[in-house]
Design brief:
The chain is mainly β. The protein is 0% helix and 51% strand. The protein is built from no helices and 7 strands.
Length: 71
């Protein structure tokens, strides 16, 4: 259930999706280098903004963890 999930980002090039009921990460997105408020979720999509020269904006699937496209 999405209400029981929290997203944690950092400088380690990952977004961790935690399920607070399980007390652990249930999915990891590898690639985004997030250094500030650069994450948005709408439905099953996560938009990440990375601190790098190219492909700063990426759209990911929350349910599968796969990268969909660069903006």
């Amino acid at each position: 259930h999405f209400a029981c999930r929290k997203q944690i980002t950092g400088w380690d090039n990952t977004v961790q999706i935690w399920d607070i009921r399980e007390g652990s990460a249930v999915r990891s997105l590898y690639g985004p280098h997030i250094c500030g408020d650069a994450l948005d979720i709408v439905g099953d999509e996560i938009l990440t903004g990375s601190w790098r020269a190219e492909t700063q904006l990426e759209v990911w699937s929350l349910s599968t963890g796969t990268k969909g496209k660069h903006i």
